[in-house]
Amino acid sequence: MNEPKTPNLGLNKIDRSSPSTTYFDLDKYLDQNWEKIDESVATKDEVEMLRRVIRENDIPDASLMVKGKTRLGNEINSSEQTVAATLNAVNLARQNAISTAASDATTKADTAQSNAKTYTDAKFDESDLWGAL
């Protein structure tokens, strides 16, 4: 008979497909399962060894040519090449660019209007207009 098992550790499960097979076998469902769990779980020494290996593993800082650890930053006026921009920094830079472009366009339009007025005022004297009437 095919006994139901858990998918990861293969622990014994109670077969609930019919009421007649629903009984609790202490050895099967407790002792055997605890043995499987005990075999699958790392010991304290193994966990400490893994921690030590991870600490000792030298992961370099990331660069344009080397994979590695990456620092994140929200700065938008930095020329640093070892810090990656966050979405917030990219959005702030985009908003600054839009604002600056709009401000520059307004300034240039105002300057062009002022220059045009100065030019026409110099070329066309108002007294000439009234004198012709």
Automatic annotation (TrEMBL):
Q: From which organism does this entry originate?
A: Paenibacillus sp. AN1007
Organismal lineage: Bacteria, Bacillati, Bacillota, Bacilli, Bacillales
Protein name according to UniProt? Uncharacterized protein
